[in-house]
Amino acid sequence: MTPALARRLTAEAIGSFFLFAGVIGSGVMAEGLAQGNDALALLANTIATGAVLYVLIAMLGPISGAHFNPAVTLAFALRRELPPRDASLYVAVQLGAGVLGAFAVHLMFDMEILQFSTKARAGIGQSTGEFVATFGLVLTILVLLRTRAEAIPAGVALYITAAYWFTSSTSFANPAITVVRSLSDSFAGIAPADVPGFVLAQLAGTIAATALAGWLVGPPEEAP
């Protein structure tokens, strides 16, 4: 039985808040402690992100599906597993709670609450990285959902952990977190002017992965 919409939206809000805070906060902490070693800072940022992602999916997945990501929500909407109205509310909650997560990080680390990133992340290489990162994430979720649903928390967390390192963009793979990271002038930030290129690449990756997953495991009604 599907939980009530209010419970699902609350779960999405909680998950988005802690995931976005985890990504940005661990970046702030890592940059402060790494003393200029970007590789060490990225490693610390990666470990924290993968860990919190596993916990949040395992905890909240049974309630809302643990999307925390408009790309994932779009994939389920395209597969007609989530009504358009619910999908729109999911995205609004993900973005709103994510902004609060960023503001909470700034408050915790005595930073200016409202800020804008100056970190440039532009170019075909970065966009390609985001396409690849999002394609792989959505494909991982949709295929595991039909073949080994119990492995989704670990599968998604491990995929993102790896994609931080094998993609040129360090795998944002999430339109909402891309927008929110533009509001933090920190290690995890992205300049606002570079957000549209990332989001377009993420949406393209989502559509391509959803189409491939439909061929690999079939639409929901045909899945084993």
TrEMBL record:
It is a multi-pass membrane protein. Belongs to the MIP/aquaporin (TC 1.A.8) family. The keyword Transport applies. It is found in: Membrane. Its main location: membrane. The keyword Transport applies. This is Aquaporin family protein. The chain crosses the membrane at residues 40-66, 87-109, 129-145, 157-177, 197-218. PANTHER family: AQUAPORIN NIP1-1-RELATED, AQUAPORIN NIP2-1. It comes from the Bacteria. It holds the Pfam family MIP. Keywords: Membrane, Transmembrane, Transmembrane helix, Transport. It comes from Qipengyuania mesophila.
